[in-house]
Amino acid sequence: MDNVRSELVQANSLHPKIRTQIDLHNRNKENCHLDVVYVLPPSVFVDPYQLKDLEDEIGRATVFGEHDLELPLEKIKETRGSIVFLRQRAVEVTDRLQLELPLHLRYQQPSKELSHRPITIEAPYAGWTCAQGNHGVLWPPLDDQYSLVPSSIGIQHGDVTFEKLAHESTPLILSVPVGKVKDLQLVSWGTFSIVVLCTLWIIRSIFLSIKKRKRSEVKGKRRNSE
Predict the structure, then answer these.
(1) How does pLDDT run across 120-153, given as a tens digit for each residue?
(2) pLDDT in tens, 158-182
(3) Do 111 and 140 touch, CB atoms closer than 8 A?
(4) Rounded distance, CA 42 to CA 5, Å?
């Protein structure tokens, strides 16, 4: 029986991974592609460019939703999170697949009580995306389940199906470090002090450079007059 199992790797870091193992007994189905599906909450995101570089290892990635690399959690516009599809090449589909999806965590809002905040990730799953005729479909037809996923243009309902494999449904839990509110004033004053000191150092360096240049010019004029 086909089965999909996932676990977290480096779960206590800001750059964890989801390791997914897929056991297959029915390989390379005709007119079908094996897709692995990841449903990520807003606190977690992937870097599409990083996934592009890893295409030979994890398959072709399609990402819908929020994947801005810089925004903290409270600044993101897409609060539904993101959906990631990893399409496996037919020639690479063996009896057992193992993939590692690299994740990134967004900075959380400071808390008065918590030092870490738990993040729940839906268990990844996989399935066969099968199209009738010559339809070329780039991702599974899951737009009826997830509003982030667009429908395929020109594809009629029923022309493309998704045959979901059996998978473990236990969610994955991450623990994300959270800043403390009581440290906010210390961090603010520390940052301000560093900016002021750096500014003064730059001003001093410019002043000394100008002063040195003027001395050189005076010496040059004296030599010329002699």
Answers:
(1) 999 999 999 988 765 678 889 898 899 898 876 5
(2) 688 899 999 999 999 988 777 555 6
(3) no
(4) 23
Place of tokens 């002090």: 193
Instruction: Please indicate whether residue 145 or residue 2 has the higher confidence score (pLDDT).
Output: 145
Task: Give the HSE-up count for residue 125: Cα atoms under 13 Å, Cβ half-sphere.
Answer: 18
Residues 175, 132: Cα–Cα separation, whole Å: 43
Kindly give the pairing relationship between strand 60-65 and strand 82-88: antiparallel
Which DSSP letter does residue 90 get? Answer: G
CA 25 – CA 141 distance, rounded (Å)? 23
* All residues at 6 or more sequence positions from 28 whose CB lies less than 8 Å from its CB, including other chains: 90, 93
Q: What is the pTM of this model?
A: 0.73
Residues 6+ apart with CB under 8 A from 181: 110, 111, 112
Kindly provide the residue ranges of all beta strands, DSSP E only, lying in the chain, ordered along the sequence: 3-9, 17-23, 32-40, 44-45, 60-65, 82-88, 96-102, 104-105, 116-121, 125-131, 160-164, 172-177
**Contact present, 131 and 159 (Cβ < 8 Å):** yes
H or E stretch at 197: helix 184-225
